[in-house]
């Protein structure tokens, strides 16, 4: 995670961003701190990457890399305003003992568009990550990749429209939650085939960034407004954990956007 010390909305690179609306950096930092502390209370370790002046979106660490079995595929951003973030995160990986670090040739916004299910890497495209980056991820990370096309610009990254509730194990398949209307018809059919027991989100769930959630297989950290989705998850045995991300959402981000999962 990367603290939003320099958080601001100075440009618009997604439909949620409006530079004309005021942003409270102190409130954003308080919300981020509560998210970080929530992970720690749930027993998780959180590494912090120092923020850099002039990179207000660096708080959205999910876009900085994809890490599976200790291999790191870095990021290459579509928007020039975020391009410099990639090198700061690459240095952090190298300085913290990651030796297998590859920087992509293709536009690749990392866990913004990549979701690991334990056996497959679901890969989004349509607005940010190039389709060619999916093949590059498969070659670099050595895992099978399934491409999914996003069609609603409000849900410009895969992590705004889908998250993994439980990774696959020998005893059970993976389970995901997703908003069907964010995907192309063919991609919906793929998801239906791969995940017949998926939790299907409503328009209201998606609009409050309820699918920009983080699950450890039991606890699901999600925005406080996502009460409908939380109720359905609780009925399945998951433990919803609410956080307020209202200030961070002004830049099109939520719990998952702020969180890169390090699978060592």
Automatic annotation (TrEMBL):
The keyword S-adenosyl-L-methionine does not apply. The active site is at residues 157, 257. GO terms for biological process: arginine metabolic process; citrulline metabolic process; positive regulation of nitric oxide biosynthetic process. It comes from the Bacteria. Belongs to the DDAH family. This is Amidinotransferase. It comes from Prauserella flavalba. GO terms for molecular function: amino acid binding; dimethylargininase activity; transferase activity. Keywords: Hydrolase, Transferase.
